[in-house]
């Protein structure tokens, strides 16, 4: 084991390296590129054996990844944002093949307007694609989650591709101390890939992706995929336990932070949860009973755990780093759904949109959220989602609008 | 003129083993299916067919498949990338001693013209660029056949499709010229490429056999006669495939490392009318009043093509000199 300062991208590449991936189809996109550059170097210098191949698009890249996994080699790939949505058709296609591989997504806001900063609209657009989704908070968690993702994906009860999501810039380009596990221990945790399902081979005829023209058979296969994804919750627990025994770090589908006696809870995902935790620390020092629930595993959704964690709290605020225009925050809907299916209610549920395109969520904004939750009553009636946006930011945008000649009759309010 | 036969003197020499069983749920008289059947006979077993969205996608319909080899349906736009993933994975397994000789497979892309000429071109061009070792069979029926015959960039000038109907604005239907896929491939200098016809079975089999000694991207561009889309009696399928060759509309050729030679040149060219007239998609060129100008344009394009062949391939000249064009 060594400890090094690694960017999130480097940590993702190290995860793939330690997993001894055999095949990497790749396509560059900011802010993901460093991952594939690192892997290209390691295949070139013999650190990794197998093949690194550059594709013409992410759509091709994901197709090649799925096809290689269907032919029995351990496969890794990575993308971001436009690349992930460009690959969308292929995501659905390869998950239907029920093949295990790992895809790292480095979150970045979607065009248009085109941007580089992170938010989660890209990865959440893929939430129904049949991939397991793990959202990480730190560079260490990036590396660890890639290793865990292979073991979950390859488990015969699951046999599905797994997506590990890290935020662009805040993780991709930020160096943090990362423990690089000992390669021998990793081999113990994650032995070489021995496919449990039939793979393409001359000696056995295999048809994959076969057309199904009746609804009953189609329903059967789609529901089977749902059940396999559900299995990933249990498998994740086993894998996390095994990982913890070997490496000492224990991951859960949900991370509870300061939750023991919390009356008010923030729900967040990704690296901005670190900002949320800092706010919780600050509030705790002030004697406020606030906690944070970080959604680490988004698919499968640990619905029962979400409900268990939130029921009995006075107020829950979900800070979504995404926006579904016309609906609001996506995770707010997911959390509300988990509570509804548990048959219980939290008196106050509020939806906040923050951090779009990498916009900061400042201390002031966190404080505003806390007061909004603290002062909220069940009798307030329906409250729409609220955008976190400071006066200074509004002034900055107003300046830009003015330069663009749009200061008159603008729609900002 | 026929190039000398290397492997098969006549149709009876082509392997008798069938890799496709009867009962495929495709249209009667499908030229694409016939081409696949012939090509697969020569390729033999241990083939994985990588399929793009199109008519052939319905061949494997759960729980049935008429093919003895393996099958992977991908998407319409990334079929060559699917082939890349399989080929690479097989190579990786072999290099690591995890693939025995009998587990080795030939990777065959099976795609229609919609995928080949339109949506899948980027992925295919990239696969050629990477020198992927695979076969690519395009069954070109000159439109999006599976969805009911809409125009593709393979639809020929003056053909009617459901999205290039005959109207005041475009009295010829499709006003664009068919994209030259052979030349698009050839610009990337793949080691082997050929056009084939389901009628010229020995020519087809010879080409497949020749390609088997060659590593890298190998294109087989097949004119796939399509009774349903083109509008003719399925019994006429083979005759129409023959007419496409005899009128010079579908030249049979191959290119090794980009160098072209024609493999079968009719001793006498029939007028293009003979090929066009039996097809409903060209009926507007004859009825109610003949579109002489459009017909001449088609004939001239064919004539110009063969004039160029005469210049480029002097060896083929005697045959070409004997030819007369109809109009």
Structure characterization notes:
- The complex is a heterodimer of chains A (413) and B (327).
- With 413 residues, chain A is an alpha/beta fold.
- Chain A folds into 2 domains: 2-247, Thiamin diphosphate (ThDP)-binding fold, Pyr/PP domains (Rossmann fold, 3-Layer(aba) Sandwich); 255-398, Rossmann fold (3-Layer(aba) Sandwich).
- Helices cover 41% and strands 17% of the residues of chain A.
- Chain A contains 14 helices and 16 strands.
- Chain A has a 6-stranded mixed β-sheet with strand order 10-12-11-14-15-16, sandwiched between helices. A 5-stranded mixed β-sheet of chain A has the order 4-5-7-6-13, with helices on both faces. Chain A has a two-stranded antiparallel sheet with strand order 1-8.
- In chain A, strand 2 (23-26), helix 2 and strand 3 (51-54) form a beta-alpha-beta unit.
- The longest helix of chain A has 33 residues, at 215-247.
- The N and C termini of chain A lie far apart (54 Å).
- Chain B has 327 residues and is of the alpha/beta class.
- In chain B, 33% of the residues lie in helices and 14% in strands.
- Chain B has 11 helices and 8 strands.
- Chain B has helices at 31-43, 79-95, 113-119, 121-129, 181-186, 201-211, 227-231, 237-246, 273-276, 292-312, 317-322; strands at 47-51, 70-73, 106-112, 134-140, 192-197, 217-223, 252-256, 259-264.
- Chain B has an 8-stranded mixed β-sheet, sandwiched between helices.
- In chain B, helix 1 crosses helix 6 (201-211).
- At the A-B interface, helix 3, helix 5 and strand 9 of A face strand 1, strand 2, helix 2 and helix 4 of B.
The named CATH superfamily of the largest domain in chain A: Thiamin diphosphate (ThDP)-binding fold, Pyr/PP domains
- What does the largest sheet of chain A look like? 6 strands, mixed
DSSP, total strands of chain B? 8
As for the number of domains of chain B, it is: 1
Largest interface: A-B, 44 and 49 residues
Q: What separation lies between the terminal Cα atoms of chain A?
A: 54 Å
Class inferred from helices and paired strands of chain A: alpha/beta
Instruction: State the order of secondary-structure elements of chain A, H for helix, E for strand.
Output: EHEHEHEHHEHEHEEHEHEEHEEHEHEHEH
CATH class of the largest domain in chain A: Alpha Beta
């Amino acid at each position: 084991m060594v400890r090094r300062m690694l960017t999130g991208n480097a940590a993702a590449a190290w995860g793939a390296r330690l997993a001894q991936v055999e095949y990497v189809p790749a396509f560059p996109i900011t802010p993901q590129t460093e991952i594939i550059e690192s892997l290209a170097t390691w295949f070139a210098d013999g650190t990794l054996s197998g093949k690194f191949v550059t594709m013409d698009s992410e759509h091709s890249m994901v197709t090649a990844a799925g096809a290689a996994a269907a032919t029995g080699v351990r496969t890794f790939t990575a993308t971001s944002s436009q690349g992930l949505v460009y690959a969308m058709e292929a995501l659905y296609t390869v998950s239907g093949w029920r093949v295990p591989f790992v895809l790292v997504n480095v979150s970045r806001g979607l065009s248009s307007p085109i941007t580089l900063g992170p938010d989660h609209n890209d990865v959440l657009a893929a939430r129904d694609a049949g991939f397991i989704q793990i959202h990480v908070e730190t560079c260490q968690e990036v590396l660890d989650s890639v290793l865990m993702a292979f073991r979950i994906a390859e488990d015969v009860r699951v046999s599905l591709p797994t997506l590990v999501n890290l935020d662009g810039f805040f993780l991709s380009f930020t160096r943090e101390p990362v423990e690089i596990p000992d390669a021998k221990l990793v081999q113990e945790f994650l032995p070489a890939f021995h496919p449990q399902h039939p793979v393409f081979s001359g000696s056995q005829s295999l048809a994959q992706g076969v057309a199904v023209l009746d609804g009953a058979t189609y329903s059967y296969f789609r529901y089977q995929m749902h059940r396999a994804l559900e299995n990933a919750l249990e498998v994740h627990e086993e894998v996390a336990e095994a990982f913890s025994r070997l490496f000492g770090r224990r991951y859960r589908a949900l991370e509870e932070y300061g939750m023991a006696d919390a009356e008010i809870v923030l729900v967040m995902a990704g690296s901005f949860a670190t900002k949320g935790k800092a706010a919780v620390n600050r509030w705790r020092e002030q004697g406020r009973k606030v906690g944070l629930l970080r959604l680490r595993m988004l698919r499968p959704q640990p619905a029962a755990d979400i409900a268990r964690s939130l029921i009995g709290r006075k107020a829950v605020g979900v800070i979504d780093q995404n926006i579904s225009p016309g609906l609001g925050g996506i995770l707010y809907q997911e959390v509300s759904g988990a509570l509804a299916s548990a048959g219980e209610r939290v008196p106050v549920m509020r939806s906040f949109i923050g951090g779009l395109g990498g916009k900061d969520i400042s201390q002031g904004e966190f404080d505003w959220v806390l007061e909004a939750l603290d002062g909220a009553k069940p009798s307030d009636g329906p409250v729409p989602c609220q955008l976190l946006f400071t006066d200074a930011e509004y002034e900055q945008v107003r300046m830009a609008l003015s330069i663009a000649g749009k200061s008159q009759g603008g729609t900002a309010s | 003129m026929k190039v000398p036969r290397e492997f098969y003197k006549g149709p009876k020499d082509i392997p008798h083993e069938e890799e496709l069983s009867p009962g495929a749920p495709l249209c009667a008289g499908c030229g694409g299916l016939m081409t696949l059947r012939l090509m697969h006979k020569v390729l033999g077993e241990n083939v994985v067919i990588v399929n793009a969205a199109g008519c052939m996608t319905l061949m494997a319909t759960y729980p049935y498949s008429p093919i003895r080899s393996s099958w992977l349906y991908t998407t319409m736009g990334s079929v060559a990338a699917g082939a890349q993933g399989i080929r690479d994975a097989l190579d990786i397994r072999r290099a690591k001693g995890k693939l025995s000789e009998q587990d080795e497979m030939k990777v065959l892309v099976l795609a229609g013209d919609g995928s080949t000429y339109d949506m899948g071109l980027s992925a295919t061009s990239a696969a050629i660029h990477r020198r992927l070792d695979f076969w690519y069979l395009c069954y070109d029926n000159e439109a999006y056949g599976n969805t009911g015959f809409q125009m593709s960039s393979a639809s020929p000038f003056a053909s009617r499709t459901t999205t290039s109907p005959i109207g005041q604005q475009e009295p010829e239907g499709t006003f664009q010229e068919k994209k030259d896929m052979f030349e698009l491939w050839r610009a990337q200098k793949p080691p082997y490429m050929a056009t084939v016809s389901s009628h010229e079975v020995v020519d087809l089999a010879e080409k497949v056999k020749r390609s088997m000694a060659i590593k890298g991207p190998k294109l087989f561009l097949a004119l796939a006669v399509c009774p349903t889309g083109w509008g003719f009696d399925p019994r006429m399928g083979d005759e129409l495939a023959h007419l496409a060759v005899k009128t010079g509309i579908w030249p049979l050729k191959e290119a090794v490392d980009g160098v072209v030679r024609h493999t079968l040149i009719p001793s006498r060219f029939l007028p293009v009318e003979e090929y066009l007239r039996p097809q409903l998609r060209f009926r507007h060129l004859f009825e109610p009043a003949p579109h002489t100008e459009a017909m001449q344009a088609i004939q001239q394009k064919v004539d110009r093509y063969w004039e160029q062949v005469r210049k480029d391939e002097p060896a083929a000249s005697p045959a070409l000199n004997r030819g007369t064009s109809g109009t």
